[in-house]
Structure of GTPase HflX:
Amino acid sequence: MRKRLENLTRRRCAPEDIVSPDLARDLARLSQESGRQVGLMLARDGSVEMVLVGDPRSIYIPDLPKSRGGRWRLRGLRFVHTHLKGEPLSQDDLMDLVFLRLDCVAAVRMDAHGGARDLEVAHIFPGNTGDRPAWEILPVMPCAEPQLHFSRFIQSLEEELERSRRALPAASAKDRAILVSVTDLDRDEAAASMQELVELAQSAGITVADTLIQRQRQSNPRYLIGKGKLGEIIVRALQCGVDLLIFDQDLNPSQVRAITDITELRVIDRTQLILDIFAQRAQSREGKLQVEIAQLKYLLPRLGVKDDALSRLRGGIGMRGPGETKLEINRRRIKDRIAHLERQLDQVKKNRSQRRSKRLRNQVPILSIVGYTNAGKSTLLNTLTHSRVGAEDRLFATLDPTSRRLRFPRDMEVIVTDTVGFIRDLPQDLLDAFSATLEELHDADILLHVVDVSNPHYEEHMESVEKVLKRLNLDRKPSVLVFNKMDRTPAPVLARALRRYDAVAISAIDRSTLEPLVEVLERKVERFILPQEAVAPEERVQEDSGELEAGPLCQALGANPLHGTGHRSLP
Ligand SMILES: Nc1nc2c(ncn2[C@@H]2O[C@H](COP(=O)(O)OP(=O)(O)OP(=O)(O)O)[C@@H](O)[C@H]2O)c(=O)[nH]1
Ligand SMILES: [Mg+2]
């Protein structure tokens, strides 16, 4: 029997036959005699790459050689095996098809006498699967004359896959990712969380090819996600030309490795994605130092896993942050590096606080817009600043000296700054990095906390923002709560929100709604001014009149003397 099985390796069938009739017959005969499934892994040219023997009901496929042509190609191997009782393709067969990205999987279904009766063939479905299965099962065909020209069939299958990849927007320089969430949240919450992950990914410059939510109570410890869903992901990656998987949940190092191994895709989690965004955004030296420290601290516990988890983690998105040369440095050197960076950071912080106390002596008031990501901060900034320049059609360049031509009393200006959005569940290391990015907030005189009140989760968002502000020691700063997007908030919801909180409602896309906010700001800013430096109200009005071709903020501020010096005796 052994000899006869070995002889199979020397067999060959024509490339156009999925399995030649005589090979099918011999497989069935061997199966009948051994009482086990017998299978062949056939290459595209019809040669036998592997002979496999299973038990009566199934067959185990060991690790296959790495795929030819990379992860977006089919493996170039088809698996043909016997089904002793003539049973249809099993779930395991279909999983093998998907997980191994086989050209196809075929069952030679035997009759009661051990003959090769017919052939059932399944292949990966090349188009967008949506809710349908990731595979397609062809109509059963007789073994004696299988009506399938295999080489032509596989060619058109690969062309179809290529087409479905090309149907997606071109994004050559970018990473293309599938976003995955495994959660026990209810449907709406899970969708909201996923939407946030999509926005995070996009702001990191990643093209989101697809999203996938699996709602389950208990997660699979090995892959986090269930095996069936993982199969779907593999097929979607193949269909979409994806190279990156991003999980909404934190992954432990061995999960990263297990998922990477089985999908052959790079795998990162939300925390690493956020770190990466910070790495992109950090401008100041302090920011860069803190982001690198956070990245290294994130990496450190993940070094325990042998193999190249390190390079994978580092390989997150592009190759940013601490460069590739550091891929090889070991745990010891990372710790040394963290210590070194922390010393540098201390020095920079000292210098900064000296610089700041100097700056504080001659500075214009700063209004800093903070808020949850996507609350509309940038929109508010644009609307406010656009209004300021009016007919001049020039954006309010925050620090542009020519804006003085607007003739504020005593050449005063107000600086409005936008900030990176806040997000929920920020780990401590990230918050440190965050605090560097938000360093300027310490210089702000007033915080405008912008809330998207149309979001059903707006109160959770407010809470997240307040938590961050507190941890940054900013919770005592004068602030104005702004409920944005009132245009798309149902009136009763808005009314209830306004009863509950002391807030100003606006719609940042509609300039005409900003007046109440501007009035509030006006009053707040006034409190910054030392009484002895304030100009008499009548004088102010006169100075203001007729000179300003400007929007409401400008008028409001213009109607108030904002003095460059000494106005910071704050409440
Ligand atoms: N309907 C409506 N949409 C708004 C309003 N304000 C902002 N948006 C939209 O909300 C989205 C997010 O606005 P952004 O200004 O980018 O939000 P952000 O807070 O700066 O977001 P991050 O910079 O990502 O933190 C954009 O699509 C805006 O057009 C509003 O008052 N009404
Ligand atoms: Mg913004």
